[in-house]
């Protein structure tokens, strides 16, 4: 039996899940910690042991100023917990798996050694806003846990099956190949988990399962899954392409940024020696998305305002709305439109052979308003919603545990409409548990 740490380092938070697993077996989660608020202090620690909430909200700003210090605080929390005997010291940890957004041409998780680390560091220019945070913790873990196996799991690896004619950009291929310029796709750990979980829910073999899956959070993407494998996805060379996010523009006319500002080719003041960010990347990744339209990254507030606006418009003049409500309705309608555009495209690329439309990610799981608006717009493709099930979400009576996948589609109608509670940390731990190389 091995103790596996799954580390998910984002731009504003770090999540740490602890699993117990046997070689080839399914991991069992025993603890989870998270530090959030790294870019919007105060930094806050949460810690759960099994089903027990040990720390629900503790400010740790005096100890945390970046991802590495956040990881250190969470590790100390685990070791100092007298009621958590599985980790008393660092040597109790056998495998540490790290979520890496951009893995280039890697098609499976990689054991980290100096050569692997140098290769990942060289990919920083393809994902300057994402890989650097993870690499900092990886270096920290290699120093602190010399006895453990550190494993890199890539968000891009699931999309290695995308056909050449889809992943290729129509530019000079000599330049493209020498600079590794092609569609890679991301959120792959989530889509891998979704595909397996939905196939099990539908009682279908993985290789016979075809889906249109939506990972909708502050970062959002869509994926066409054909026969259990990625066929196309909305993100491209970087996570910027495709759907708009909380602060990302999603796909726009490539020349837009040059009309937006005159200094877009220069390095941003936020750049460091290890992190090179152009002003253009900063604008499209951090100063766009629905926050640019509404002033908030909270999509729940945007959806609620849009729903309230629709009720008002049914009885009053649109001009009676205040500017804030109009902006939130605009953002909501824009996001729905972009999502539906990908659903339509992927329905065609899958030739109508679709088992289910799957909503996942924080927004996909929680926003019944978004699901209702999307399914209504794509109903021409045969999707139908069960309004009562959609409103209820995954809640169960009598204290039953919330399912991983639940059905919100109209009974008897195919393709199905499903919601999946995705789990990237579990997917990383599973990949490590099943690969003998990491034992």
UniProtKB/TrEMBL annotation:
What superkingdom does the record give?
Answer: Eukaryota
Cofactor requirements of the protein:
Mg(2+)
Per the Swiss-Prot or TrEMBL record, the active site comprises: 155
Q: Where does ATP bind?
A: 15, 215-219
Q: Can you state which reaction this protein catalyses? A: acetate + ATP = acetyl phosphate + ADP
Cite the EC number.
2.7.2.1
- EC class name: transferase
Involved pathway(s) = Metabolic intermediate biosynthesis; acetyl-CoA biosynthesis; acetyl-CoA from acetate: step 1/2
Binding-site positions, substrate: 99
Q: Spell out where the chain crosses the membrane.
A: none
Q: Which residues does the record give as Mg(2+) binding sites?
A: 8, 424
Family matches, as Pfam families: Acetate_kinase
Tell me the InterPro entries matching this sequence. Ac/propionate_kinase, Aliphatic_acid_kin_short-chain, Aliphatic_acid_kinase_CS, ATPase_NBD
Q: Site positions for Transition state stabilizer, renumbered to this chain?
A: 187, 248
Q: Which UniProt keywords apply?
A: ATP-binding, Kinase, Magnesium, Metal-binding, Nucleotide-binding, Transferase
State the signal peptide span: none
UniProt lists the family membership as follows: Belongs to the acetokinase family.
What PANTHER family is this protein classified in?
Answer: ACETATE KINASE, ACETATE KINASE-RELATED
- What NCBIfam families does the record point to? ackA
Question: What's the protein name?
Answer: Probable acetate kinase
Q: Please tell me the species this chain comes from.
A: Humicola insolens (Soft-rot fungus)
